[in-house]
Design goal:
Layout: H1 4-22, E1 31-32, E2 39-43, E3 48-53, E4 56-57, E5 65-69, E6 77-84, E7 89-95, E8 103-106, H2 117-135, E9 154-157, E10 162-165, E11 168-169, E12 176-179, E13 185-187, E14 192-197, E15 207-214, E16 217-224, E17 226-227, E18 234-235, E19 240-243, E20 254-261, E21 264-266, H3 268-272
Length: 277
C-alpha cells in the first residue's frame, strides 16, 4: 500500500526544485525526479572545468548537459558542485525525498537456502563480466532522451521491493518486472550500445543483455528467451533487441528491466513514466 504522506513529500520535493530552476535559483537548471531511485538532467554553468555530486566526479557533455541519479537508499540530500575556470565553485544542495518501499515481512519463513556449489563456482566470473560491461564507456547519447518502456504489460514486482525473512532482510529488487508471455518483443528504451550479450544463460539473470546509454547510465534486461543484437552494436530507441523469457532464476516468463547510473540503482518507473499499453 502506498504511504500517501511520503508520496506527497516526494512530489513536493520535485516541485520545489523545479520552481527554483524556473525562478533562476538553481545554477544547474536541474529537472527530474528528486527522490530515492530518481534521475535528473541539468546543465553546468559556463566555464565549468569539473563537476561533482556528493564528492564524486560526474561527466558532462560539450554542450554542458549532464545527468545525475539517486540510489534506492540515497540520503536526504545531494551536494552538486561545479568548479569554474576562475577557481570559483558553484554549489547547490538538493533535497532527496524518502520513499515508502514495498516491504514484505515473512516472520515464519527462513531466508532462501545458501547457493549451490555450482552457483558459487560460476558466479564470480559472471559478476566480473557484468562489472566489466558497466565500466565500458561508449559515445551513446540515449541518456539525453525521455525513456520509453521496453515492453508493456502487468507490473508484477516494483523496484525497491524487499522481503524480511524472520527478521533478516533479503536483497531488495533492483529493477522492475513486467509479466509477459515468452517471445514478447523487447525494445530498446533509449539509444545505446550493446555492452553485454550473454552467449549462454547466467545462473541468476539467464540470457542477459545490457545497453550503455552514455554518461554512465546503463540498462539490463534479464531472463530473455533470445537476444537479437550482438555486443558492440549501436541500437536506436524502439528497436527490437530480444524477447521475454524465463531463463535463469525465474518462476515464470517476465521481463526484468534494471537501470543503473555509476553504481546507483534507479527506478525504471521514474525514468519511463506511467505505462500506457
Amino acid at each position: 500500500m502506498i504511504d500517501r504522506r511520503r508520496f506527497a513529500a516526494a512530489l513536493l520535493a520535485t516541485t520545489l526544485v523545479s520552481r527554483r530552476a524556473l525562478a533562476g535559483g538553481d545554477p544547474f537548471a536541474l529537472t527530474g525526479s528528486f527522490e530515492q531511485g530518481g534521475i535528473a538532467r541539468g546543465q553546468v554553468p559556463p566555464g565549468t572545468t569539473e563537476l561533482r555530486c556528493n564528492g564524486q566526479p560526474v561527466p558532462f557533455a560539450a554542450d554542458r548537459r549532464f545527468l545525475i541519479a539517486f540510489d534506492r537508499d540515497a540520503g536526504p540530500s545531494a551536494l552538486v558542485e561545479a568548479v569554474l575556470a576562475d577557481g570559483l565553485t558553484v554549489r547547490d544542495t538538493l533535497v532527496i525525498a524518502e520513499r515508502a518501499w514495498n516491504i514484505s515481512r515473512l516472520d515464519r519463513l527462513a531466508k532462501v537456502p545458501l547457493p549451490s556449489t555450482e552457483f558459487e563456482a560460476r558466479r564470480p566470473a559472471e559478476l566480473a563480466r557484468i562489472a566489466a560491461a558497466r565500466a565500458r564507456q561508449t559515445p551513446a547519447e540515449g541518456w539525453r532522451q525521455p525513456f520509453a518502456w521496453p515492453a508493456t504489460g502487468r507490473i508484477s514486482t516494483l523496484f525497491g521491493s524487499q522481503r524480511i525473512y524472520a527478521g533478516e532482510p533479503g536483497a531488495y529488487h533492483s529493477g522492475i518486472d513486467i509479466a509477459l508471455p515468452t517471445g514478447t518483443l523487447v525494445r530498446a528504451p533509449a539509444d545505446g550500445v550493446v555492452i553485454l550479450a550473454a552467449e549462454a544463460p547466467f545462473t541468476l539473470e539467464g540470457n542477459l543483455l545490457m545497453l550503455d546509454h552514455g554518461m554512465g547510465l546503463s540498462s539490463a534486461f534479464l531472463h530473455l528467451s533470445r537476444i537479437d543484437v550482438p555486443e558492440g552494436a549501436a541500437v536506436r530507441q524502439g528497436q527490437g533487441i530480444g524477447a521475454v523469457g524465463a531463463t535463469g532464476r525465474a518462476t515464470g516468463p517476465h521481463l526484468h528491466w534494471g537501470l543503473m547510473w555509476r553504481g546507483a540503482r534507479i527506478d525504471p518507473l521514474l525514468a519511463a513514466g506511467a505505462m500506457h499499453a
